[in-house]
Amino acid sequence: MTRFYATTPIYYANGKPHIGHAYCTTVADAATRYHQLLGEQTYFCTGTDEHGQKVQEAADQRGISPQQHVDELQATFRELWPALHTAPDQFIRTTEPRHEGVVQRALQQLWDDKLIEKRSFSGWYSTSAERFWTEKDLVDGRCPDTGQAVVWLEEANYFFLMSRFQQPLIDAIESGRMRILPANRANEVLGFLREPLLDLCISRPKSRLSWGIELPFDADFVTYVWFDALLNYVTAIGGYGAEAENAAVLGDGAASGADGLSSFETWWPKVCHFLGKDILTTHAVYWPTMLMALGLAPPRQYCVTGWWLMDDTKMSKSLGNVVDPLGLKDKYGPEVLRWFLLREMAVGQDANFSEAALVKRNNTDLANDLGNLVQRTAAIVDQHFGGQVPTLPEGRALSPLLQSAQALGRYLIGEDVPFEATASAQQVWPVDKTVDELKLHVTLADVMTLVQRLNQVLAQDQPFKTVKTDKDAAAVTIYHCLEGIRFAANLLWPAIPETAEAILTRIGWSGGILPLSKLTWGDLPAGAKVPKGGALFPRYKLEDGADAGKTADAKQKHAPIATQQDAPEVHIDNPIDYAQFMALDLRVGEVLSAEPVKKSKKLLRLQVSLGELGMRQILAGVAEHLTPAQLIGTKIQVLANLQPRKLMGMWSQGMMMLAETADGALVPMRPDGDAPAGSKIA
Ligand code: MSP
Fold first, then answer.
1. Does 557 lie in the same domain as 419?
2. What is the total count of domains within the chain?
3. Would you say residue 629 has pLDDT above 90?
4. CA geometry: angle at 103 spanning 100 and 109, to 5°?
């Protein structure tokens, strides 16, 4: 049995949760659920980091004891996770006795093994980063991490002999035993390790900081907060003698052992740490060397995420630009927030946060693409098939587009079916591959390709029309669309768990979410009841002047369009604004040559002059409607700035605009009058 042990950073209990924290936990939650879909056993931990200077200062500012302060703050994190539909198996606090025991035992072992030494030390100390810097590290005399002031401190301290593990660490990364994703982050760590690795100060004198775990061999000192915090990943699964205490404290929630192994032996080899790029050094240098010194294996895998930015600047409490995830959750619901976080940000890269972008994601992906697909399909079932999944008629073929949708669905779950990515997606990967590489944004984009393909099927096969003349043809389309929806919902469950389950209910599937190995196209039973239901996702409108992010002062400025008093009578699907329209570079083109494309029934290859923009090769899917002779020498309308793409091994560098007539023929849009090639159309 393959397993997956996911951890989030344990969040500082010095302030309320913000969107960066919500992101980390949501990504880890979604990855955990994807591993469940892959048939793995999972264990998922999060928690709070409750010692150290920052926490002590936050408590001092509030005039309460650090313990009272962390007791209050940890609750805000603990309550947030279920509210965001994340489902950690364990919430660990570093002030729990079971964890303090682990830290002290680990310290004692390193001390006994002479891997900790007492030394006198001086350096520039940054309170904000809680660490010493050398003179050359400073930037303009300030802390290079936080930009805050530093002070010169001289004191005796205890040092972990980290330098001894430099080469073993390099070996672990280079051999792939420590897999750091995305790969550029592994290079960053290796780059850091090109300089000699120093020893690590792991104590703080109580005279300066009392809020920490006392060193077992010197009562005048407490443990450096990172040494303490990183060990939570071991405590949580019962390492270092925590197993019995875990069982007593957590009961059924404790990680369990397997195959005669302890819970630590079961889970540790399967660990995947999720963390932000700002805490890469602590996780990928301090932590593995600590583990090696303790005789344990370094972490198996890391997923290093980027930052949510506001106007290209990192959100931080000190800048006062943090976004409150609870505010957004209250306004749009947890599923929309999860969707936005997971779909908008490429794992590992930075992304700009804006409420406008969140609204757009909701309207485009959820309300339009997914919501409409489910709604339209279910409506036909309701109106024409007595509210029941239609029976597949014998001997009726699937339309080519429907076949490609089916192939895509089966390909996504890992079936070995030939599948060619077309139009909207340049490349599509099976889910197990993108999940293994932790490219969850790609997983979601690929599943949305299936959703879009199914919408194209509805648009092209027109079951709402054919049902009146050829009910069997409509039954084929609808049955397979329902299956496609079932596949898509199952595959989107890790991102939007409640919605996915609601969609399954809506299409008459009562078998629940299935591991991919049990997902079979064609299992949806004919005759299953498809209940009536309303829209799955409200559409939102961003009011003029309402801006991104600052949810606190933008309260309820967004109302679902449907309930707006001043909403226009017409319903516009996926409206775009003027700027988006102006982004389209539409031009008059003159077709200089046209010829059929070998082995393609549909494509014509055109050479088109766009005047000042030069020549373009355009592959147009019109061979069944137009002859080359009908095009050569004529003027057409071209979308000139469409991303070029390859079809049948040839580049298509623009799109010919066509209108579809009532009988399904395609006719070119032509300028009425003497507009020269290259003229702009707006
Ligand atoms: N307590 C330490 C972690 C110890 S783990 C043994 C800590 N806590 S934190 O609360 O400051 O940050 C936790 C996580 O939130 C980090 O991974 C950090 O990258 C992430 N984020 C904080 N701000 C962020 C954004 N603006 N965007 C995305 N994530 C960011 O560090």
1. yes
2. 3
3. no
4. 140
pLDDT at 313: 77
Contact call for residues 240 and 106 (beta carbons, < 8 A): yes
Q: Concatenated DSSP letters for 138-186? A: -BTTB-TTT----EEEEEEEEEE-GGGGHHHHHHHHHTTSSEEESHHHH
Whole-number Å distance, alpha carbon 9 to ligand 1 midpoint, is 7
Q: Which atom of ligand 1 is nearest to the CA of 322?
A: 26
Residue 669 pairs with which residues in a beta bridge? none
pLDDT of residue 424: 53
For the CA atoms of 64, 66, 68, 72, what is the dihedral angle to 10 degrees? 110
The HSE-up count of residue 620 (CA atoms within 13 Å, CB side) is 31
Sign of the dihedral through C-alpha 14, 15, 21, 25: positive
453/518 same-domain check: yes
Task: Assess if residue 272 is contained within a domain.
Answer: no
Residue with tokens 């279920």: 82
Amino acid present at 65: S
Tell which of 583, 602, 626 closes a domain.
Answer: 583
> For residue 36, what are its two tokens?
């469940």
Contact 237, 265 (CB under 8 A): no
Q: How far is the CA of 223 from the centre of ligand 1 (A)?
A: 20
Distance separating alpha carbons of residues 70 and 53, to the nearest angstrom: 13
Q: How many residues does the chain have?
A: 682
Q: Are residues 514 and 655 in the same domain?
A: no
User: Which residue CA neighbors atom 19 of ligand 1 most closely?
Assistant: 276
Residue 425 has pLDDT above 70, yes or no: no
**How far apart, in whole angstroms, are the C-alpha atoms of residue 400 and residue 609?**
32
Q: For residue 8, report the distance from its CA to the centre of ligand 1, in Å.
A: 9
C-alpha 242/C-alpha 236 separation (Å) is 8
Q: Could you tell me which of 644, 636, 587 has the C-alpha nearest to residue 619?
A: 644
Q: Is 535 found in the same domain as 388?
A: yes
CB 49 within 8 A of CB 225: yes
Yes or no: say if 367 and 535 are a contact pair by the CB < 8 Å rule. Answer: yes
- CA dist 27 and 33 (Å) reads 10
Q: Model-level pTM? A: 0.80
pLDDT tens by residue, 343-381: 999 999 999 999 999 999 999 999 999 999 999 999 999
pLDDT of 567 reads: 36
Other C-beta atoms within 10 Å of 280: how many? 18
Q: Is the peptide bond before 182 cis (omega within 30 degrees of 0)?
A: yes
**SS3 of 618, please?**
strand
Burial letters for 192-207: b for 16+ Cβ neighbours within 10 Å, e otherwise? ebeeebebbbbbbbbe
Residue 592, domain extent: 585-681
Predicted confidence (pLDDT) per residue in 115-131, tens digit = 999 999 888 988 888 78
**Residue 145 near ligand 1, beta carbon < 6 Å:** no
Q: Is 11 in the pocket of ligand 1 (CB under 6 A)?
A: yes
**Shared-domain flag, residues 461 and 561:** yes
Tokens describing residue 349: 């890269």
Say if 282 falls within a structural domain.
no
Contact 119, 161 (CB under 8 A): no
- Does ligand 1 lie within 6 Å of residue 224's CB atom? no
Q: Nearest residue CA, atom 16 of ligand 1?
A: 276
Question: Do the domain assignments include residue 291?
Answer: no
Q: Is 10 in the pocket of ligand 1 (CB under 6 A)?
A: yes
Domain co-membership, 590 together with 578: no
CATH number for the domain spanning 466: value is 1.10.730.10
Instruction: Specify the pLDDT at position 451.
Output: 97
Q: In the structure encoding, which two tokens stand for residue 485, read together? A: 């929806």
List, as one string, the DSSP characters of 490-548: HHHTTTSHHHHHHHHHHTT--S-S--GGG--TT-SPTT-B------SS--B-PPTT--S
